[in-house]
Amino acid sequence: MSEHVLVINAGSSSLKYSLIDAGSGKAAGSGLVERIGEAEGRHLHRGPDGETSTDGKIDTHEDALRAALDAFETHGPSLDAVEVAAVGHRVVHGGSRFADPVLIDDELIDAVTALVPLAPLHNPANLEGMRVARRLFPELPQVAVFDTAFHQTLEPAAYTYAVPLAWRDDHDIRRYGFHGTSHAFVSAEAARFLGRDPAGLNVIVLHLGNGCSAAAIRGGVSVDTSMGMTPLEGLVMGSRSGDLDPAIHAHLVRELGWTVEEVDHALNFDSGLKGLAGGNDFRELSTRVEAGDPVAQLAFDVYCHRIKKYVGAYYAVLGTVDAIVFTAGVGQNGADVRAASLGGLERLGIRIDAQRNDAAAEGSRLVSADDSPVAVLVIPTNEEWQIAREALAVVGSS
Asked: Are the CB atoms for 267 and 251 separated by under 8 Å?
């Protein structure tokens, strides 16, 4: 049986795809189609011979996936030659129903459609990706891998909000958590890096990209996580506010006459680093901090202060911590963020080695001091590989 899986991540106006060898994690080919439905789209494809880029109008997700198939045939590798075993789809919200990856059929499509109210910004696009792929690959098994699934191990005390029972029972209001494929992959890689059995390891994972989340993982099992019913809760993000006094919503409606939709849009797309400093590119923010920009400095301080609060909280939840792991774009590249977020926590056994932390390096690495009881690691995430492995496991067992 081939181990190649075509991984698809459909966004509202984009489509990412990767052809992954689930055994090695190597991407034989990958690409990104952007600005679907806009006047000018862009398609970047990476194949064996390098990158190719084309511009032009791309009307629908079906057009985007057809363009991807054409790119595979023209620039390689041919999907026929590698014998694709399955198509794996990233699905943001699986509610409380899905704790594992699932073969996609009409019943699964209906179930994910019913969950759209929980993720109106994400699930509709994920559904479109599944529908399109099923039309174009009718003979291939297709698997939905849910971003929320890894966190379905949370105990009721961790996932229950202190709201009326009817809200919880009738409207599924609870903590679900996200970035599950990343947290699952990175926590397992941390155990491998340390030469430890995951079952005996307590880890705090900090996924810091444009979206940010923290997770407390005990013995390979998620016991708490910062994102909530939606990906808006928790850490400060690129354009999302993270934790916020819920009364602010009502205040904006009463005092400014905003609609619920306007508040929701502002908190998801105009807040976070963008709201604090005017932009969500962390590289630009760091440059401004170095230049002495006080607005950028405040944004940086707020961002790192929130991370530190979650590290302390999850240390308390876990009782003992063996490792803290930074991953995703900012987590992997932001030495300044790692130093500021963990500075002052030496009494908790967390000591960063400045030289290791500042060193330019790729791949998994240790950045804590030799005498640090808690290991501090940088581990690149690979959500596509995790999705490919989970999809292949479902196909192999069916």
From this structure: no
Rg, Å, the chain Cα set: 21
Tokens of residue 176, six digits: 């679900």
322 belongs to the catalytic site: no
Residues 279-335 have pLDDT tens digits of 999 999 999 999 999 999 999 999 999 999 999 999 999 999 999 999 999 999 999
Q: What share of the chain is helix, strand, coil (3-state, %, to 5)?
A: 45, 20, 35
3-class state of residue 303 by DSSP: helix
Q: Is the Cα torsion angle 233, 238, 240, 245 positive or negative in sign?
A: positive
Read off the DSSP letter of residue 58: -
What is the phi/psi pair of residue 147, to 5°? -65, -25
**CA dihedral sign of residues 74, 42, 382, 330:** positive
The answer to whether 196 and 322 have CB atoms below 8 angstroms apart is yes
**Cα–Cα–Cα angle for 104, 118, 256, nearest 5°?**
150
Catalytic residue among 49, 55, 105, 147: 147
Pairing assessment for the beta strands 323-327 and 202-208 based on DSSP bridges: parallel
Q: What is the pLDDT of residues 6-56, one digit of tens each?
A: 999 999 889 999 999 999 999 999 999 999 988 888 999 998 888 999 888
**Two tokens, residue 277:** 């400093």
pTM for the predicted model, two decimal places = 0.94
